[in-house]
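hey team, just a heads up i'm posting the complex here instead of the shared drive bc the drive is being weird again. everything in one block, sequence lines first with there labels, then the predicted structure for the whole assembly after. its two chains so it's a bit long, scroll down
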Amino acid sequence: MKRFPIFGWLIIVLGILYFFTPLVGTLEWSLRIVSRDSFSLNAYTNVLMSERFQRTFGFSFIAALATIVVSVLLVAPTAYWVHLKLPRLRPWVEFVTLLTFVVPAIVLVFGIVRVYSRPPFSLMETEWGTNFLVIMGYTALSLPYTYRAVDTGLRAIDVRTLTEAAQSLGAGWGTIIFRVIFPNLRVALLSGAFLTFAVVMGEFTISNFILPGIVSFGPYMVNLNQTRPYEAAAVAIISFGLTWTSIGVIQLLGRGAPGQLAGTR
Amino acid sequence: MASTTGTARRFSWEWIGVVPFFLYALLFLIIPSSFLVIGSFQNAQGGFTLDNFVGLFDETVRNSYTLSLQISLFTALAGGVFGFLMAYAAIAGGLPRFVRSFLLTFSGVASNFSGVPLASAYISTLGRQGMATILIGRQIRGEVLQNPNLGYAVAVGMVVIMSVSIIIYSWLQRKTEGWLR
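-- predicted structure starts here --
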């Protein structure tokens, strides 16, 4: 007969209290906007209807999608190629993807601003240019996640056999990468994509220093924190829900495909 | 697709496949970060100097490094012990399976729900910005610093600390990969 696992439950309950107290506090606070004695969703409707929320959220959403496309196109073919043809380069590629952990975002954005404010690349002067730089910075942030996801995915499939089979049927490199390798990596690519999405939606440093004013979602949240506390709590809850959804989707995708999930574990 | 012509051609063209990746890394990671390294070896007139690194041992700078290191160490230890206990409870503590998958999802959420929303959830009890972040931030905004190059040196010191931790991390990971086999 098994005893009731007191120790186990105690730890779990403590953990839940530790993690959820601030969240519940934030949620409760966000509902108290009208009065102390009643709950109301006004903070949420205020936020959702506000033009600045819609604009900054929209910007970060589109920036996240662009970052996902850029980082997948940059990382997946490279990881595949290194896997197949240039295993000697693997430590170097890994080194580059880990650079983002070594070089803090503030250092990176400082360098980017300095390099691209002057000729030959005066990208800081146009809106197109700053948007481009922000996407490049976000891509740098997403490299470790995307790379690790793709690398784990590639280890799980037989890259060489798939490639040779496709070649023997007359496929070119484009066909092999986009119609043979990518579909086999879809769980890995999607989990990398959702992680990137969560990272970009909450990003502050890079967009704050490259873009003029409050353009993206991170600086908007910080600004709200300083000016409108109830709405700020509402946004924190919304963004928590968003992150939870992203990770939930990754877990769902990873079901039945163990070992394909990198980054979050 | 004759394999005879392939050998010679493949030998010289294989590296082309990784050019976009390394070009990106050069343009948006390596060149931008090297600006800071160069600046940390320069004085206000642009000449070579090691003074900025000597300046790292000034009391204020040294104290902020020490404080950051202490906070990190404490966080790492507390996170390690607490995380271990929770993982142990979920796997060996006789808890139902759903607890395990919930913890797995939640730790994924928690690790990605960082930054601004988390700071606002914890109402920023601790200043999230370290010394280097503040110094360089001011520098970008064009606010006058007494010695911007010292700021670069502070950041380079931070990068060095991060590199050492990442190297130890990779080494440990390689070790544990060996255990799993």
